Structures are given as C-alpha cells and as structure tokens.
Amino acid sequence: MTSAGGPIGRCVLGFSFAISTGDEELAAMVDALFADLPPVAEPEHLFAITGVTDKEWSVQLDRSVVVDNVDHAMLASTLVWLVNQRVVAHPGGRLLFHAAAVAHGDNGALLAAPSGGGKSTLAAGLISLGLSYLSDEVGVLELPTLRLSAYPKPLSLGPGSLAVLEPLWARPDGIGTSQGPSEHQVAAGSIRPASVVASAAPCVVIFPEGAPGSVSELGRLSPVEALPLLVKSAFNLAERPQAHLDACTALCRSVPSYRLVVGDLAEACSLVLGLVGYPTLSAGQLARAR
Amino acid sequence: MSDPRPAEHFRPQIKEGLPQSELEGALAVYDVAGEQLMILNASARSVWECCDGTGTVGEIVSDIVDVFGVEAATVRSQVVELLIDWSGRGLLEQPFPGNNDASGAS
Predict the structure, then answer these.
(1) Which residue, A62, A83, A129, A211, is the most exposed by fewest CB within 10 angstroms?
(2) Count of CB atoms within 10 A of residue A212's CB?
C-alpha cells in the first residue's frame, strides 16, 4: 500500500506489512485491495513488487524473491495468497478455522466449510444484506475468550459466485475489485461501506454445504455431531491440541450448530440472518433476489 | 502365528498426554498423529477409562459387564474390537504381546 510518504502499513493477527511498488496504477489497486485491514505505523515486513516484463511482476518479501514472473492478471490473487500464508503460519495462540465469519452487532456466525465450499459467496451475500464482515476464509477464535476476531481479507469470488450474487448486490467494479482469470478479489468495503467489524461473540456455528437446485434449509446438529465437523475445519489444532480441543468443545457446548444446505443463495442468506437476530428476507425480497 | 487380538491377561494402557475433552457424557479424543477425532460413547468411554495399565482384558470385561449388565461374550467382543482399533491408531502404550496361548485368546 502506498502514499505520498511511502508504503502504508497494515496489520492482521500480529503480521504487519506494507506493499511497495513504483507503478501508480498498481499501487492504487493494492491500496484498495487491502483497505479493510487495520493500518499500522511501522510494519515489520515489506512486500516489494517490481516489473519483470510489461505484463509480469516479481514479488519480494523483505528483499527475498518469493514469487517470480507473476502474470498481471494473477497479481492480486497472488498478493492475497502471500499475506494469507504468513497470517495463517503465525496465529499467535489463536485457533484458526477454514471458515467465514460474519456478525450482526456482537452476534457472530462462524461458517465452516472446506475450500471451495461456498463460504466466500455466502459471506458476500450476507454482507450485502447488512451483516458485518469478519472474514471469508479464515475464522479466528481467540483463546481463552472464545471471541471471533476479524481477518478482513478481500473476499475471493469466482465468476460463478459473482453471477449468483448479482441479484443481491450492485456488482462492484473498479476500485475494490481486482479481477483475475479465475477469481476476483473484492474488498468488503466495496460490497457495503463500513461493513468490517473487529470482533464478535459467536452465537452460532454453521456448516454450509452447496447443493445447487435444492431448497436451502437448516438442520440442527447436536454438540457431539458438530464437534468432529468443527475439529476437521481447524487449521492448526495440532499446535496446542489440548487447548484447541477444549476450545472446540466449549464452542459446541455453548452455541447451537447447524448444517445449512445452500440451494438458493438468497434463501440460505435469509436463514443465516435469522440465526444472528437480523430481520430475514421477506417473500418479496426473496423473489426479487432470484 | 501370532494372534492380532489382545490376550485375556494383557493389561492395556492408554498413552499419556492424549488430548481429551468431555461433551454430553461422551469423550472426545484427538489422535494427534492421525489428525483424527474419536468420539467415545458412554460404553466405549468406560473401556477407555479402564485402560490404565492395572487391569487385564478379562478384568475390564468383568467390570463393564457389572456396570452395564450386558452379556459377557458381547462385551468381550466389543472390548477387543476397541483395543484393536486403539492399538492400530497407536494410542496404547504397548502393542499386544504375541498371543499363541489358545486359552488366553479372546
């Protein structure tokens, strides 16, 4: 991220960084991409983007090349991936899940599903409908408070997701959207301004399962049924296995868990809205969203 | 040829330090090496908690029969199955010794 005074630092979960480049258009894209991450005065790490050819870039981290010959169309996704890698590698005692997280006020919902399971699409839909954004891929559980913290990375949405989301939102173009051949990186603030929150208390755990063409529906899970699913979605349970297992158990014991069949996206979003105490979509709204 | 089943006189002992957590009467055990979670229901949990290295398989079976009032042959079969599973996952302190004694086989 850059400004007249040099790269702007960002910090997430203890990983602080800045991204520098001499290309103004690229700098603007990077600034917009990471705009939702909290600023920091003195970042510890520096990503430097330099041009290799007209259409390819090299990325250094702290003066070591980490990725070379990145096609311009893939640069945004590559930068998000590089930051992701470092954040997940150093969770600072937190328990991380393959999960999106959204909230209504202090009522947080953890949406745990494997990669490609539709978390980001569901999160994007929920943000557009009024929920606050914590993350689309990495659910962060603080220990011992068991609060959800934000990792408000850009949402990674494929072309198919954008098509499904279109009825729910004005498709963001230009700043805030970085388009690659296979996915778009969309800053949450582009979907709905001021949608990012710092943390929330989890009030529900949801395991979404994509089922195009099906009716969206919720199925309640017992704590004993939910625990294996939650443990399976944890990134780093083995780092502190007893503490992390205890955290998962406490979460399953204290908040309800559900399977969510995601057929129609608007219907699925409406079901989640109800679980966090947000007004659900009316029949008219659902009809307009299809 | 060695019998893969635990002998009646075998004293099973669960490895120390395995992450465990109770939930609604069941016991969740995390197999760190296999990165898998086991959920032990009430009866499996009873067997697990008996595996402290002091009791033999035969004594564990008797204890479970006393608690749950189930037929001994059924309990023995289930205890053996559990021990084979846990041994295979590396959750026991020691593997089963070679069992060539027909009278000790379960």
Answers:
(1) A62
(2) 11
Q: Which tens digits make up the pLDDT trace of A25-75?
A: 899 989 989 999 999 999 999 999 998 887 889 999 999 999 999 998 889
Tell me the DSSP string of A115-177.
Answer: TTSSHHHHHHHHHHTT-EEEESSEEEE-TTT-PEEP--PPEEE-HHHHHHHGGGSPPP-STTE
Stated pTM of the model: 0.90
Task: Decide if B92 contacts B51 (C-beta within 8 A).
Answer: yes
- A234 is written with which tokens? 């944890």
CB contact under 8 A, A223 and B24: yes
Task: Tell me if B28 and A232 make a contact (CB, 8 A cut-off).
Answer: no
From A56-60, A153-157, B98-102, the region with the lowest mean pLDDT: B98-102
- Contact between B28 and A249 using a beta-carbon 8 Å cutoff: yes
Do the bridges between strand A15-21 and strand A45-51 make them parallel or antiparallel, or are there none, so unpaired? Answer: parallel
Q: Burial of A4 by CB count in 10 Å (0-12 exposed, 13-18 middle, 19+ buried)?
A: exposed
Taking the CA of residue B7 and the nearest CA in chain A, the distance in Å comes to: 32
Tell me if chain A has a CB within 8 Å of the CB of B68.
Answer: no
Closest CA to A100 of A84, A79, A115: A115
Q: Which residues of A79-103 are buried (b: 16+ CB within 10 A; e: fewer)?
A: bbebbbebbbeebeebbbbbbbbbb
Residue pointed to by tokens 């602080």: A16
Q: Kindly give the residue spans of alpha helices, DSSP state H, lying in chain A.
A: 24-33, 75-89, 119-128, 159-165, 188-191, 223-232, 241-254, 265-275, 283-289
Structure tokens at A283: 């029949």
